[in-house]
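Design request, tokens follow.
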């Protein structure tokens, strides 16, 4: 079995209207929620082997907060293709991963992440900001992953469901 963790970036700031979308940072709540969700992963044995992130500032800051909260020892992998990515981009990345990697995390954007979740699990599940979906897929080799896989949504966590600091 392989596992995929999808996390939508935490709440971004709209204070500086002139900023390009890719440059929007996290707001105060977003910073707090990102750290809180890292603790949620830690408490639920949801530690990834690899973390991939969109290069958008709000996603980068979310991924960095997660990595810090879980004491992630590797570098987060930032990929330009993950900015506002559609499901096929995620699938292409997953299918090229080595088999010794069992749990992969993506930090990115909707609607692509929700579409991927729907494809993998066959159900519509919302991912509000900073939400995490933990999916298990019945494959032994990443190269065997297909869109019609019968994945199982193991858990979904939202900041408002997690205990406050």
């Amino acid at each position: 079995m392989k596992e995929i963790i999808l996390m939508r970036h935490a709440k971004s700031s709209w204070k500086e209207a002139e900023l390009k979308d890719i440059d929007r940072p996290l707001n105060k709540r977003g910073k707090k929620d990102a750290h809180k969700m890292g603790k949620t992963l830690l408490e639920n044995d949801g530690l990834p082997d690899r973390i991939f992130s969109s290069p958008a500032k709000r996603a980068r800051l979310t991924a960095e907060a997660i990595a810090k909260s879980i004491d992630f020892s590797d570098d987060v992998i930032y990929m330009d293709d993950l900015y506002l990515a559609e499901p096929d981009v995620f699938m292409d990345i997953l299918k090229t991963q080595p088999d010794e990697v069992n749990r992969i995390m993506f930090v990115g954007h909707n609607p692509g992440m929700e579409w991927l979740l729907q494809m993998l699990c066959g159900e519509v599940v919302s991912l509000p900001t900073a939400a995490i979906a933990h999916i298990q897929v019945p494959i032994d080799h990443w190269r065997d992953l297909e869109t019609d896989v019968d994945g199982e949504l193991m858990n979904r966590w939202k900041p408002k469901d997690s205990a406050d600091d």
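Comment from the thread starter after seeing the answer: thanks! Residues 28-43 form the longest helix (16 residues).
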